[in-house]
Amino acid sequence: MKGKISNQFFRNYLIIFCLSILAAVLVYLLSGFTNDIISKTLVKNIYPASLLMKDDYTDIDAEPVVRNGGGIQVINDRYEVVYSKGLDTIGTERLTVSEFTQFLIRSKEKGHQYSYDILYNPQGGFWLIVTFPTSIRLDISFVYNREAVPKDVKNVSLVFAAIIVLYLLMLGLFAVVFSRISSVSITKPLKMLLTGTKRLREGDYSARVNLNLKNEFADLQDTFNDMAQKIETEISLREQAELERKRMIMDISHDLKNPLASVVGYTELCLQKTDESDKSLRDYLKIILKNSRRASDLLNDLFEFAKLESADYSIKLLKTDICEYLRQACGDLLPMLEQAGFDYNFNIPEEAVYVMLDTVQMNRVLYNLTDNLIRYNPEGTSLIVSLYEEHDNAVIIFKDNGIGIPSDIVNNIFKPFVRVDDSRNSQTGGTGLGLSIAYKIIRKHGGNIDIQTDLNQGCTFIITLPKK
Question: For the HAMP domain, which residue ranges apply (predicted)?
Answer without folding.
Answer: 184-236
